[in-house]
Amino acid sequence: MNKEIKTDLTIEQKVESLLSQMTLDEKIGQMTQVRHFDDITIADIKTKFIGSIIHTPGPTPGTDAAEWQAKFVQLQWLALSTRLGIPMFFGVDAVHGQNTYAGATIFPHNIGLGAARNSKLVESAAAITALEARATGFNWVFSPCVAIPYNEKWGRVYEAFSESTEITTELTKASVRGHQGGLDQQVSLIATAKHFIGDGSTDFGVEGGNTTLSQEEVMERLLPPYRAAIEAGVGSVMASFNSLNGVPMHAYRAMITDVLKGSLKFEGIVVSDWKAYSRFGGTDVINAGVDVVMAVEGDFNMYVEGVRNGVLNGVISQERIDDAVRRILRQKFRIGLFDNPFPDLRLISKIGIQAHRDVARQAVRESLVLLKNENNVLPLKKDAKIALVGEFGNNSGLQSGGWTVNWQGMTENYAGATTILEGLRKFSSQDVLYDADGSADYDSVDVAVIVVGETPYAEFMGDIGGVMNKYQLTLTPEHQMLVDKYTAKGIKTVVVLISGRPLVVTKQLEQVDAFVAAWFPGSEGEGIAEVLFGDYDFKGKLPHSWPKSEEDYQGKYGPNFWDRTIEPLFPLGFGLSYQKGI
Ligand code: GLC
Questions:
Q1: Which residues, other chains included, contact 6 with Cβ-Cβ below 8 Å and sequence gap of 6+?
Q2: Within a 13 Å sphere around the CA of 120, how many CA atoms are in the beta-carbon half?
Q3: Residue 230: closest CA among 196, 205, 260
């Protein structure tokens, strides 16, 4: 008999046996996810039977991985000291490596992996991320984001793979397999497909806005990545902040219970997004089918009491609670949490090792998309006199985007990372000059590599025209000045764009000899230098249609695969290379 079938039967029996012993308070505790540093007292973990902890960038559990693990072991012992001793999940937004931990391997954000479109590479990156997440004490990652972005004004385009459903579906499957292992392997951490559903397809790209696609369009364009994730055995799905045709997704029973859990037969955990209970109708969130709630930022007591009273008053059925707890216990048994509730100290030595960084550097190389290369500027000659222009070329924080060490990313170098300048200097036989802000004004170089783009951002902070309105579809005036200054010198110029999305760079493309879209490459900036010098060819292809002007965004969406009425400057799939001639 197939071991897996025997194990499943055992898991289901264990789940039913444990569920039958649980009190209402113990069940609600399993459905509660809190932060380890502010929403609860340590004693609450025991007295409220907390089922999972979320670590978000902020006060870290310790200064190194051993201290992170020790903190989580201390919290786990509290959970194990309860009547039934049900161990906790520890969850983290490891969305491009274990990015809350300085020193971890940081991969290109998913938009770069979408440009590389290499499933094996995505699977390897996810496996490394899972290992480094486990090494820092986690067994649940809130990744991958499987959104289908329709409008580059959205502040989270870079968290998704592509505007193409096909590419997204293919890479979602690889990502879940990488994080969790194949269906025939022991799972030691669960991944999360997010955000269900329509997060990237809101009108005008507003984070948490309203998605107005028809049911057919949702089923045809947005659902396939979730189907693939479920087929790959994903342990959880996160509900989305957006509304779908006016109904908040967190309260959308027909989509969460009927479609996701019913038609798609999802047997894992539906987890809410941040502070969803108070934001989306309290008990409606539970009745819609959400199983675990991020009861954070003041929601904790309101949530626990609200669900308890909801059940006692018949607003929430006992069956709904049991369905939620069954799913939670199933995943905990599945990853062997009862047998081994503690992290493995032996994994700590694997964090950020060269073998991991080599995979990340390959991902950087394969993510680069060559949009222009004239006058044989690229590949750079190793004996050429080069000026690297712009601080983005010498700052690992600026090259990594949001969700890097901090929620909103870093604007300075961080542990273990290499920059583009370091890469150029490593491979060049000359002294590569560095002009951080255009003031050095180097005239006698053969070529200027000008690195410009977007400072890091996360979530609504990156919405263009949104609440913060810090970002724009075109280059900043400071970056335009760098391009103007060096193109005016009559020397050859290459622009490397560091961004979380396609930007309107039609003018700059005309000004310069070569142009590379590098997305948010993460810790291995050297990978960019390897391709600029021609040690590797360009392989990346655009995972998004590329806009020609800001007018492309007058409607609800930008130029995208689904809407042929807006002609892009470059189509989805465009990308030049050295081999094919330029
Ligand atoms: C955030 C994000 C979600 C993340 C969660 C926990 O608001 O929407 O992607 O996993 O909260 O940090």
A1: none
A2: 3
A3: 260
Query: Look-up: residue for tokens 């990372």?
Result: 417
Of these residues, 199, 435, 459, 552, which one is catalytic?
459
Which residues' Cβ are closer than 6 Å to ligand 1? 56, 93, 142, 194, 273-274, 459
Distance CA 214, CA 235 (A): 28
Instruction: Check pLDDT > 70 for residue 215.
Output: yes
Ligand 1 center–CA 344 separation, angstroms: 26
CATH value at residue 118: 3.20.20.300
Rounded distance between C-alpha atoms, residue 204 and residue 211, angstroms: 9
What are φ and ψ of residue 514, in 5° steps? -145, 150
459 is catalytic: yes
In a domain, 561, yes or no: no
Tokens of 450: 């000008």
Determine the Cα–Cα distance for residues 531 and 374; give it in Å rounded to an integer: 16
CA distance 101 to 64: 9
d(CA 77, CA 337): 13
Q: What are the pLDDT digits (tens) for 69-79?
A: 999 999 999 99
Active site (annotated) includes residue 513: no
Domain containing 53 equals: 11-348
| Amino acid sitting at position 310 | G
- Residue where one domain finishes, among candidates 293, 325, 348: 348
338 and 363 part of one domain: no
Question: Residue 496's beta-bridge partner residues?
Answer: 451, 516
- For residue 156, give every residue at least 6 positions away whose Cβ sits within 8 Å of its Cβ, in sequence order, or none: 145, 147, 149, 199, 200, 207, 458, 459, 462
Distance 273 CA to ligand 1 centre (A): 6
Name the pTM for this structure: 0.97
Per-residue confidence (pLDDT) for residue 581, from 0 to 100? 60
Tell me whether residue 6 is in a domain. no
Choosing from 156, 273, 459 the residue with most ligand 1 atoms within 8 A of its CB, the one to mutate for a pocket test is 273
- Six-digit token string for 103: 């020193």
- Which tens digits make up the pLDDT trace of 423-446? 999 999 999 999 999 999 799 999
The residue to which tokens 């142009």 are assigned: 515
Beta-bridge partner residues of 495: 450, 515
For position 3, what pLDDT does the model report? 35
Angle ∠(536,537,538) on CA atoms, nearest 5: 125
Secondary structure of 230-257 in the HEC alphabet? HHCCCCEEEECCCEECCEEHHHCHHHHH
Confidence of residue 4 (pLDDT cuts 50, 70, 90): very low
Q: Phi then psi for 540, rounded to 5 degrees?
A: -65, 145
- Nearest 5 degrees, angle CA 175-CA 177-CA 183? 160
Which of the 8 DSSP states describes residue 546? B
